[in-house]
């Protein structure tokens, strides 16, 4: 089996996030290259970290905590979708 070029792999678009009444409001889009998806999730996590730090340091910043929470939820969905691609069995080339 030949190793697959990671940049040729794309997201599956099967991972939902932001549930309301047991229904997902959003889903990761399919067809995004894995390097691009990981670059984007890195940016999401960086901003989530900054917001969480602000929320921890100042009073009355619960809006920062919620924004951080939703960014982390989006990030987890993207990472979970990428992991599903990387763990999927591949046919021999």
From TrEMBL:
InterPro entries: DUF3077 (IPR021427). It holds the Pfam family DUF3077. This is DUF3077 domain-containing protein. It comes from Pseudomonas poae.
